[in-house]
Design a protein that fits this description.
The complex is a heterotrimer of chains A (about 325), B (about 325) and C (about 525).
Chain A (H helix, E strand, L loop, with lengths): L2 H8 L1 H20 L6 H26 L7 H15 L4 H27 L5 H19 L9 H8 L1 E2 L3 E2 H19 L1 H11 L1 H6 L4 H27 L6 H17 L11 H20 L6 H16 L16
Chain B lengths: L1 H10 L4 H5 L2 H20 L6 H26 L7 H16 L2 H29 L4 H20 L10 H8 L8 H19 L1 H18 L4 H27 L11 H10 L11 H20 L4 H19 L7
Chain C lengths: L7 E10 L2 E11 L4 E5 L6 H8 L7 E6 L2 E3 L4 H6 L2 E4 L11 H5 L6 E2 L2 E2 L1 H14 L16 H14 L4 E5 L7 H16 L3 E5 L3 H7 L2 E6 L2 E7 L5 H8 L23 E8 L3 E8 L4 E5 L6 H8 L7 E6 L2 E3 L4 H5 L5 E4 L3 H5 L6 H7 L2 H4 E2 L2 E2 L1 H15 L15 H13 L5 E5 L7 H16 L3 E5 L3 H7 L2 E6 L2 E7 L5 H8 L16
Parallel strand pairs in C: 3-10, 3-11, 6-9, 9-10, 15-22, 15-23, 18-21, 21-22
Antiparallel strand pairs in C: 1-2, 1-4, 4-5, 7-8, 11-12, 13-14, 13-16, 16-17, 19-20, 23-24
Helix pairs in contact in C: 4-5, 12-15
The chains are: A mainly alpha (about 325), B mainly alpha (about 325), C alpha/beta (about 525).
């Protein structure tokens, strides 16, 4: 009878992130010298979707109560790969895109295999694979360079019908093609169940391993889509260590802002996307208020620290201190 | 269980320092010998005392940083704020030194103190707010980075390392032994003492094994965790101070190259990433192993890319040998 | 229903955990359209029986058949496939998923490879209605529901699988009275629909109302099966009594503790509905037992004394002085001098991979250190004393404590606390899973500690032990003290009867029971 209430309760995190984003974006555009123009939206969207893709990638793994500290490096690696492969005739370009996506999927699958079948802690395992992926990226691009099919790049970073940012359209399409089917599938539900309570999931006969493997693999794929877009924006490939690290870190921030629980089982990629967009806008807010851009990293760091501390509020509900120790 | 008892019987016939060594530590030392041997085949210089002493000196910076990391890993936690705490220690010490003689005198304590402060923030987040350590330390790393960017204005910091710090890192108080090595040895000795002879050390191992049991034994586990993180922050910052002395100045991303090697050194030395198990001897072996690996790869002109890949592969391979969680069901 | 082939039969099922026999050649026959109650005291093998039937554990020997065909389960999912659904005491619901998601989790309806949410909703609503819980919204998250509602979802989830046999293990223990009535009418309807129901409960009145037949388990064996209503409660209790072994307990001194100032006392202690208005005293030299069925609040009561629980109401007093204990560190301090031997020695009492030495001295390290540095000579002396006192058998002090036998591990847990010479000793089922010889040593030790002036509060699931060791036993039921037994009242019959919360006045139970 009151279905919509339950829907809102379930989407609370995502809605909150959407709200934060909306407020931030309004403040941003109303203080922007150019105001709300198609151009401003396009620039903001192009900046935002990169983190949005990486945050979606992180979400999938976090839902299973894992973590992927190599997403940023997969993002960088696929960027370098795309700067070699996504060139030439339309057919060659299409093949290149497919190869880049496949490479991302493979990276994710390697993470998944090491974590699930190697039974290693996701933190250390993905730090180590992150180093490998970064090494591969360096191997591909010891120096920044390469190129990309500029027609495709311009089409995907431009505007549709003069107003709609194409990158945003792609983002929505990815949500519809990757996220929604995952969320609605048996595997996706198993991923949520595993993250929420592995014991209950086991008792209910849920396919735990398949769910975790799928989550890690799809995570790699989504990071690769992000890497492709990075190439479309920059027209080059660059094995930038700091940038990869930053994207990993920001993806966690975006996920937390987007209402995804780091303990697993709760949240959605849509929430994480709004978390990412909000996080980006927070960073950009400083510009329109004429703050020194130097303050941006500090500001973002503080927002992140604050966001992760919010989860600690649940601690006050603990009545048996032994629950601290899990 | 029968393995443990047989092992115990054999072990009791061995000298004391070997008895404590577990297979991981032995393997790490074996790898060091193997690396030296391979290096020796490549060029006899690898076996010269000068080269080995030089490696010890380079290793001591990583050694100091890895000591802090080990404390935290023994608790079953991790400290990802190392990169910028290292840079901060270096920058703050150099900055303090610019304020006259008093500043120069307090430069080192000030740099270390800044690291301790960040460590305390990490510790509060992990121990009292029960946020996963990986997340808190990532966040504080970002905050420190932000602080340092604001402080330096985005440029390379201009202050150069004062003479005291340079002497600490590169001088020779004991003839023939670089000061950095002496410092690492002192810190190492203190750590071994703390881990084996004090109630703090016992508590660290106990919490890493089973925090619940340690808590029910009447240990203030949260305080112990916080102290360990504070020490880790302080040691990272001190490592940064030494690095600044070595390079004569601080630099923006100087800590980035130390996070992965520090974790790798600790883990390769047989310390369980799940906590509760590991010896400092193993960490020493891990540090030397990593340093030698780096040195040999660079002498062989292996590009950075290859080094990163080899790191990652070596860590995953060693972890698959030692660091696996028990199979469930 | 006199068919020659029963719906389900298990024959000669045995299961051992380490050296402990949980089930020993147990037989059970289940018929459709009947409610079959399983009775037995703590540790009689009921839970293991259920786990075997549900595919959670596999038996060491014996066979199970369904309509004559043999059954072997590799996992809980396999048991589901075979038509056996179970509702466990520890819930198997995923907290972050919705009620509907949980109900269909084993086999969601699909359309084009995706989960068909409309069909899922229909199934969930039907299952909830069938379970008599149509007031639960299928979109609600399970974690937002109170425990009693979750239990109803659990039942609906089991029903959605269309089982032929439904097992309910203490399914009503978390339910409010109104829910119990509803569940009962549902169960009776399911019976008329031809389902076979296996019902485990400690509430005798429920069994009297529901069951068609009853099987009593004792020491891992089925000792009697009878048609419901053919045995009196007294006879049922007699069937449940009777452990095989009998211990030699140290003599209890004739002493009157009523005049003494209690060393440990609590008044009107309550905590989140799990502890309800508990008042008790323990005098120096007294051994007070906590009895009752598993999970009636005994564990929480001990944790409450030890400073682990937050948000308690009521008063705790030590030596007549009101105290606030906010952590185990405070509880063990000199002002209070309390020790807790925890429930699970492997996760709460010991650090298994660490050495015997490190474990033994761990709780007393603050007394063995100066400025944080351990005085190793003093440590060695105390450890030697303890090893001798408790006769701990170990190949050395530096081997991992996990390599010791269960009994010796438990001795280490006790020794580590005795190093502090505590005045108040709380024990949470310390003899579970240890050998008979060690148990006897422990009984003598307890009595000796009491004689030396310690106040001892001792929870045990073994009724024999409570009778043999304790000066007085408080029986807990549903988080409250339901009865106090002293002297000649302290019989196994009285313990079981009061644990089941049967009214007093039955033959063998002394009249004028719960004070």
């Amino acid at each position: 009878m009151k279905d919509w209430r339950y829907w809102i309760a379930e989407q609370r995190g995502a809605l909150l992130a959407f709200g934060i984003f909306l407020v931030m974006f309004t403040i941003y555009t109303s203080n922007h010298p150019a105001g709300l123009t198609a151009n401003v939206v396009q620039t903001a969207s192009n900046k935002g979707v990169l983190l949005a893709f990486v945050a979606m990638a992180q979400t999938l793994v976090v839902i299973t109560a894992g973590i992927d500290l190599s997403v940023g490096m997969i993002f960088i690696l696929t960027n370098c790969l795309a700067s070699w492969l996504v060139v030439g005739t339309p057919a060659e370009t299409a093949l290149g895109v497919a190869a880049v996506l496949l490479a991302g999927l493979l990276c994710g699958a390697v993470n998944g295999a090491i974590v699930i079948f190697g039974r290693l802690q996701p933190i250390v395992a993905t730090i180590a694979t992150g180093a490998i992926y970064f090494g591969l990226a360096l191997l591909l691009r010891p120096f920044p360079g390469g190129s990309v099919n500029e027609d495709l790049a311009d089409a995907l970073t431009g505007r549709l019908f003069g107003v709609l940012p194409a990158s945003l359209v792609v983002l929505v399409m990815v949500v519809l093609v990757v996220w929604v089917p995952f969320r609605r599938s048996v595997t996706g539900r198993a991923a949520y169940a595993t993250g929420s309570s592995e014991l209950a999931a086991y008792m209910s006969g849920v396919p735990i391993r398949r769910a975790r493997f799928a989550a890690y693999s799809l995570s790699g794929l989504l990071a690769a889509i992000g890497g492709l877009f990075l190439t479309f924006f920059t027209y080059t490939g660059e094995a930038a260590y700091a940038s990869g690290n930053a994207y990993t870190l920001f993806s966690i921030a975006a996920v937390v802002l987007g209402g995804v629980s780091l303990f697993g089982g709760r949240g959605s990629a849509v929430g994480a996307i709004f978390g990412a967009l909000a996080f980006r806008t927070i960073g950009d807010l400083l510009f329109v208020f004429d703050f020194d851009p130097l303050w941006q990293p500090l500001f973002q760091g503080v927002v992140l620290l604050f966001a992760v501390s919010l989860g600690a509020l649940a601690l006050f509900r603990v009545r048996n201190r032994l629950e601290w120790f899990g | 269980m029968s393995d443990t008892t047989t092992g115990g019987r054999i072990a009791s016939r061995m000298p004391a320092f070997l008895r404590r060594a577990d297979p991981a530590v032995a393997t790490a030392f074996a790898c060091i010998v193997l690396l030296l041997f391979l290096g020796g085949l490549y060029s006899p210089n690898f076996l010269s005392p000068e080269y080995i002493l030089q490696q010890f000196k380079v290793a001591s910076f990583l050694g100091v940083i890895a000591t802090g990391m080990m404390l935290v890993v023994l608790l079953g936690q991790i400290d990802l704020s190392v990169p910028w705490v290292v840079a901060m220690g270096a920058m703050m010490a150099c900055a303090a030194a610019a304020y006259g003689p008093a500043g120069a005198a307090l430069a080192i304590p000030f740099g270390v103190l800044c690291g301790v402060l960040i460590g305390v923030v990490n510790g509060i987040g992990v121990a009292y707010l029960r946020i996963p350590s990986m997340i808190v330390t990532l966040a504080t790393n970002a905050v420190v980075q932000g602080l340092m960017v604001v402080y330096t204005g985005g440029f390379s910091p201009q202050d150069s390392a004062p003479a005291t710090i340079r002497y600490l890192a590169t001088g020779f108080a004991v003839p023939g032994v670089p000061n950095a090595v002496v410092i690492w040895a002192l810190i190492g000795a203190a750590t071994v003492f703390a881990l084996t002879r004090t109630s703090f050390g016992r508590a660290v191992y106990a919490i890493g094994n089973r925090e619940r049991a340690a808590y029910l034994s009447g240990i203030d586990t949260r305080r112990v965790v916080m102290i360990a993180f504070a020490l880790s922050g302080g040691l990272s910052a001190f490592g940064g101070v030494l690095l600044a002395g070595y390079a004569s100045k601080a630099a923006q991303a100087m800590g980035d190259a130390y996070l992965l090697p520090a974790i790798a050194a600790v883990v390769l030395g047989g310390t369980s990433i799940l906590g509760g198990r590991g010896s400092y001897l193993g960490t020493v072996a891990g540090v030397i192993l990593i340093t030698l690996l780096q040195s040999i790869l660079s002498v062989m002109q292996m590009p950075e890319a290859g080094r990163q890949i080899i790191y990652g592969v070596v860590i995953v391979a060693m972890l698959l040998l030692y660091g696996r969680a028990p199979a469930n069901r | 229903m006199a068919g020659t082939v029963p719906l389900f039969r298990m024959e000669g099922i045995s299961k051992r955990y380490g050296g402990v026999r949980a089930l020993e050649k147990a037989d059970l026959t289940v018929e459709p359209g009947r409610i079959h109650a399983i009775l037995g005291e703590n540790g009689a093998g009921k839970s293991t029986l259920i786990k075997v039937m549900a595919g959670v554990v596999s038996p060491d020997e014996g066979r199970m058949t369904m309509e004559g065909r043999p059954l072997v389960f590799a996992s809980p999912a396999a048991a589901n496939q075979a038509g056996i659904a179970s509702i466990f005491q520890e819930l198997s619901l995923v907290p972050e998923l919705s009620v509907a998601d949980n109900i269909v989790i084993c086999d969601p309806p699909k359309k084009f490879g995706m989960i068909d949410r409309r069909a899922q909703r229909r199934i969930a609503e039907a299952a909830l209605a069938r379970a008599g819980a149509d007031d639960i919204h299928p979109c609600a998250l399970v974690k937002d529901l109170p425990l009693s509602r979750r239990q109803m979802v659990e039942i609906a989830k089991a029903l959605a699988r269309r089982p032929r046999i439904l097992i309910l293990d203490e399914a009503t223990s978390a339910l409010a009275a109104a829910d119990v009535a509803r569940v009962f009418s549902v169960l009776k309807r399911l019976r008329t629909e031809g389902l076979a129901l296996l019902y485990i409960s400690h509430r005798m009145n429920e069994i009297a109302e529901l069951a068609d037949e009853c099987t009593v388990f004792r020491n891992g064996r089925n000792v009697a099966t009878y048609a419901a209503g053919t045995r009196s409660e007294h006879e049922v209790v007699e069937l449940m009594i009777g452990r095989e072994y009998s211990h030699v307990f140290p003599a209890k001194p004739e002493r009157d503790f009523r005049g003494a100032t209690p060393m440990l006392e609590c008044r009107n202690l309550s905590w989140t509905g799990r502890l309800n208005d508990i008042s008790l005293t323990v005098a120096p030299g007294e051994v007070v037992g906590l009895g009752g069925l598993d999970g009636q609040g005994q564990r929480e009561l001990l944790l409450a004394f030890f400073g682990v629980l937050r948000g308690m109401s009521g008063k705790i007093m030590v030596n007549g002085r009101a105290v606030r204990i906010t952590s185990p560190a405070a509880a063990r301090g000199d002002a209070i001098g309390m020790a807790l031997i925890p429930e699970d020695r492997k996760t709460e009492g010991l650090m298994l991979p660490m050495s015997v030495r490190e474990n033994l001295s761990f709780a007393a390290l603050d007394r063995l250190t100066t400025a944080g540095v351990i005085d190793r000579a003093a440590e060695q002396r105390m450890i030697d004393d303890m090893v001798k006192l408790l006769a701990i058998k170990t190949a050395g002090l530096d081997i991992p404590v996990g390599a010791l036998s269960g009994g010796n591990q438990q001795k280490v847990v006790i020794a580590k606390w005795l190093m502090r010479q505590p005045g108040i000793i709380l024990l949470n089922d310390p003899t579970r899973g240890i050998d008979v010889g060690t148990k006897q040593e422990m009984y003598r030790l307890l009595r000796r500690l009491a004689d030396e002036g310690a106040a001892i509060l001792f929870y045990s699931t073994d009724y024999d032990e409570l009778i043999g060791c304790c000066d007085r036993v408080l029986v807990l039921y549903d988080g409250a003290i339901s009865r106090e037994l002293t002297g000649s009242e302290l019989t196994e019959h009285a313990l079981i009867a009061s644990a089941l919360n049967l009214a007093g006045g039955k033959p063998g139970v002394s009249p004028g029971a719960a004070a």
